[in-house]
Write a structure and sequence with these properties.
Blueprint (H helix, E strand, L loop, with lengths): L2 H7 L1 H31 L22 H11 L10 H24 L11 H31 L7 H17 L3 H26 L3 H4 L2 E2 H31 L13 H12 L8 H26 L7 E2 L4
Parallel strand pairs: 1-2
Helix pairs in contact: 2-4, 2-11, 4-5, 5-6, 5-7, 7-9, 9-10, 9-11
Length: about 325
């Protein structure tokens, strides 16, 4: 009974809870667009002979709008939310851990005075560290989510899918794509946190120290941070999605044997443009999701802190 009061009395406890609230807000806001992104990133079954149902062109890739119409027509609106249970069930802990580790790392490497905000260089370094560490949680969750998003048969739950992967492929299958996830997320998180801190200070000078900023500043800074990080790492995300979407086993030969092999086969079969397929959808989702994440995080943290001298500036922009 006394756990929660004591937990929330500590700064790291409040940061942990606020990070979880932000993570849930991000999943709820962006999962349909995430489903479109994952579907767009998958290889065309036969690029040489396939005729796209939406464009009528031989070997062409489906547009986001065409894919959306096709999903709604053949599978229904619920298909856009398929696989949401996996990230939603874990995102509270995952995102909470990300913000908590980021806060701890940025404070530990901060060489500025106690009353001064962390330098942008150290913000980026803390982001890189967070990105590398959180992949241990993120990789299995995204693997299950992607397998659910690309499946076309009867819908199953994330736990059933996780058990199925483990039974067929073992622990190695659960962590398929870990290397490319680290390569994607470590530098991308450095860009992510640096962009957010720089943009919020640029839009609202002094807010990093005073904690006073508008809701529109939170939304725009968070959205721009998400867009910048995705632009930085998107080709690696395409490779990661393809590696994790393939299912293996004792009698199943994988289409891609690794990161380099996936790059080579994808580009040779579908051209360089394949590395940017679905980027528009990813950017739109990133702005919505990360604006929601940072806004929910900041608002939840201020609520838990009892404002603590900080206030939200409501202004009309």
């Amino acid at each position: 009974m006394e756990f929660w009061p004591e937990f929330l009395a500590s700064s790291w406890g409040r940061e942990f809870v606020a990070g979880g609230v932000g993570g849930m807000a991000g999943v709820l806001a962006g999962h349909p667009l995430d489903t479109l992104r994952i579907r767009l990133q998958q290889p065309i079954p036969d690029p040489a002979r396939a005729i796209n149902a939406c464009t009528g062109q031989r070997g062409s890739a489906t547009s986001a709008i065409g894919l959306l119409r096709g999903i709604l027509r053949s599978e229904g609106p619920s298909a856009l939310y398929r696989g949401m249970g996996a990230p939603l069930a874990s995102i509270t802990f995952q995102n909470a851990a990300v913000f908590q580790i980021y806060a701890s790392l940025s404070k530990s490497i901060n060489t500025s005075k106690d009353d001064e905000p962390t330098s942008y260089k150290n913000v980026a370094l803390a982001g890189v560290g967070v990105g590398a560490i959180q992949t241990l949680i993120l990789c299995p969750v995204e693997l299950v989510k992607i397998r659910l998003q690309v499946m076309s048969g009867p819908s199953i739950g994330p736990i059933t899918m996780a058990k199925e992967i483990f039974n067929k492929e073992g622990i190695r299958g659960i962590y398929r794509g870990l290397s490319v996830t680290v390569l994607r997320d470590a530098p991308a998180h450095g860009v992510y946190f640096w962009t957010y801190e720089y943009t919020r200070e640029w839009l609202h000078p002094g807010c990093r120290k005073s904690g006073e900023e508008s809701l529109s500043t939170m939304l725009f800074s968070g959205g721009l941070a998400g867009v910048a990080s995705w632009l930085f790492c998107y080709p690696l995300d395409v490779v990661k999605s393809r590696l994790q979407a393939q299912s293996g086993g004792h009698l199943t030969k994988l289409r891609y044997t690794g990161i380099a092999d996936c790059f080579k086969k994808s580009v040779s079969e579908e051209g360089l443009a394949v590395l940017w397929r679905g980027l528009g959808t990813a950017v739109a989702r990133a702005f919505v999701v990360n604006g929601a994440i940072f806004s929910a995080y900041e608002l939840a943290l201020r609520f838990l802190n009892g404002n603590d001298g900080q206030r939200l500036v409501l202004e009309e922009n």
